[in-house]
Amino acid sequence: MNADIRPIRTPAEQALIAELDQLPSVNDRLGDLRLAAARSFEENGLPHRRVEEWKYTDLRTLMRDAVPVAGTAAVAEADARAKLLREVEARRIVVANGAVVPELSDFSALEEGLTLRSLADVIASGDDVAARIGGIVPGRYDAALALNTALAKDGVVLEVAPGAHIERPIHVVHVFAGSAPAASFARSLVVVGEGATLTYVESFEGPAGIAYQVNSATEFYVGDETHLDVVRLQEESASAIHLSTLLFEVGRRTQLHTFTFAMGAAVARTSLYATLSGEDSHIAFNGATLLKDRQHSDSTLFVDHKVPGCESRELFKTVLDDQSRGVFQGKIVVRQAAQKTDGRMMSRALVLGDDAEMDNKPELEIFADDVQCGHGATCGAIDDELLFYLRARGIPLKEAQSLLVQAFVGEAIETVEHDGLREALIACAEGWLKARA
Amino acid sequence: MAMLEIDNLHAKIEGEEGREILKGLTLSVNPGEVHAIMGPNGSGKSTLSYILAGKEDYEVTDGSVTFEGEDLLEMEIDERAAKGLFLAFQYPIEVPGVATMTFLRSALNAQRKKRGEEEISTPDFLRLIRERAGGLGISQDMLKRGVNVGFSGGEKKRAEILQMAVLQPKLCILDETDSGLDIDALKVVSEGVNALRSPDRAMIVITHYQRLLNHIVPDVVHVMNKGRIVRSGGKELALELEANGYAEYQQDAA
C-alpha cells in the first residue's frame, strides 16, 4: 500500500491507535484476533481515496477526530431513545453504546431451537460458539472491520438450531445514549442451522446534534437449506458517523435476502460481504438510501461466487436531495469453479438536489466461462413528463415529487417479505418525504 | 361570459428561435358547448392543448387566455386543474409504482384542498370510483396497478376518461382520444364522455377524423391549420372535411 505518501497520522488515527495500545494482552484466540486487527489498523490507518475500496468515501478526511469509547448507557435514556420499529411485533434486544442492556431486552420464553445471549456472556462462559467470531474473513483489509474486531466487547450471539423455524423476528436495537460524543463498537454473531428460518432485524439510532460514532459488525453463518431475511434500518443522528460490516458465509440451497435502509448519519458506510460456498443458493441484497443536506452514505457490496449454480441479485435505490452524496460499489466475483452462476446487480439513483452527487461503481470479475452476469447503474432527475402528468391532474409539485420518489424507493422496499417490517419501512420513507415537503 | 377565451395566441417551443407553432389563434368556448378542433398533422392542435394545460416546454409570445375571467397563463399547472381544466392526453403516460387508486385520490384531494373543500372520506371515494369505473369497464385489478402500467392503448384512454369522471372538471380537452381505439373501445369512451356532458361543462375535442364526432356530437367544428383557426361551422363541417380533406385549407393558408 502507499504508506510512503501518507507520512503523518491524523488526530483520529493517533487517538484510535492510543486506544488500541491499551488492549489487554489476553492469551487466547480472541485476544490474538484483537491484537492482529489492532496491528493491521496501526499499519494501514484509516482508508483514503487512494485505497480503491474507499475511493469515494475518504474516511481519513471525513473522520477528522476519533472520540473516546462510550461508557455504559443509562437504561432509562436508552429506552427513551430506542424508537425505531417499535410498532413491529418482534423480540427486542437493546444494545446501547455497544453493550446489551438486559433490562430492555427480552431473553425470556425463547422459542424452541433459539439460543440468544450477549457476546460478553458467551466469551465469559467460554462457549465454543465464540470461536466463530472473526471466522468470516472478507478477503481484503477493511479498516472499519479491523477496528470493530479489536475494540468491540459485546453484542448479540444468536443461534438457530437445525430445522427450527423462528416466526417472530429478532430485532437488535442499536442505540446511542449520552450527551457527549463517544464511540461505540458492537459485534454480533448469527448462526442459522441447516433447514432453519429466521428474520433478523438491526436498527440504529441516537440523539440529534451529537457527533457520536458507531461501528457495528455482524457475522452470519447461513447453513444449508435455510431461509434468512435480514432487514436493517440506519437512522443515526445527522451528526453521527456510522460504519458497519455485514459478513455472510452462505451454504447450499439457501435463500438469503437482505434489505438495508439508510437515512441517517453525517457519514455512513455499510459493507456487505458474502461468500457463496454452497451450490444452488439464491441471495438478494437490496437496499434504499435517502439523503439530504450534506449527508454522505456509502453502500459497498462484495459477492464471491465460489461454487456453481448460485444466483445473486442486488437492487439499490438512492435518493439524493440538497448537497448530499451517495456511493454504491458492488463487486461480483465468479471463481473458475462457479459455473452456471447468475448474477445481476442494479443501482438506480434519483437526484433531487442540484448539488447532489452519486457515484456508482459496479465491478464484475469473472473467471468461469458459462455464467450470466449483468450490472446496470442509472442516475437521473425526476422525469419531467411524469411530473407534468401528475400536476395536470391537480397534484402540486412537491406532492407530485413525493409520490414519484415513493414509487421509486418502493420498488426496492417491496422486496421485504415480512409485512409489518415492509409497512414500517414504507412509513419511514413517507416520513422522510413529509419532512422534505 | 365565455368559459374559455383565447385571443390572438402566439406560441413557440421554449428556448427555440424562430418558428411559431400557434400564430394568432382565437377561440371562445361557452359552458355547455362541445367544440371540435380538426386539422392536419402539424397544425398545432396538440400544442394548443399542452399550452392550455400548462406544459412548460412552450413559450407564449403574444395573446391571452382567460378561463372563467382569470388569466390562465399565469396559473401553475396544478392550479389550472383545481380550477377545473382537464386534459385527456393523447399518449397517457405510465407511472410505475403509483397505484391508480392512490393517484386518483391524491389528485382529487389536492384539487379539493386548493378549492378550500374538505378531503373526501374513504367510503365516499371508494363508492365514487366503483360507480365511475364500472361503466368504463375498468376492473379493480387495473385500479390497483400502477397508473397506466401494462394497460393497452384502449385501456389507457378509458383510464383517462375515468380520471375525468372522478375529477369532474369544468372544461375537458380531449386530445385525439380516438387514436388507437378500435370501434368497440371508441364506443365505450364516447359514452363515457357523453355521460359527462352538462350545461355547466364545456369540451374541446381534438381529432383528425370525423368518426369520433359521430359519437360525440359537437356544437361547433373548427378547422385548424398552421397555428390558426381557419374556419368554423356546425357539425356538418366535419362531414365536409371527411369528404374533401384538408387540402383546400392548406392551399388557402399557403
TrEMBL record, chain A:
Residues 29-172 form the SUF system FeS cluster assembly SufBD N-terminal domain. Residues 180-408 form the SUF system FeS cluster assembly SufBD core domain. It comes from the Bacteria. GO terms for biological process: iron-sulfur cluster assembly. PANTHER family: PROTEIN ABCI7, CHLOROPLASTIC. Belongs to the iron-sulfur cluster assembly SufBD family. This is Fe-S cluster assembly protein SufD. It comes from Ancylobacter mangrovi. The lineage of its organism: Bacteria, Pseudomonadati, Pseudomonadota, Alphaproteobacteria, Hyphomicrobiales.
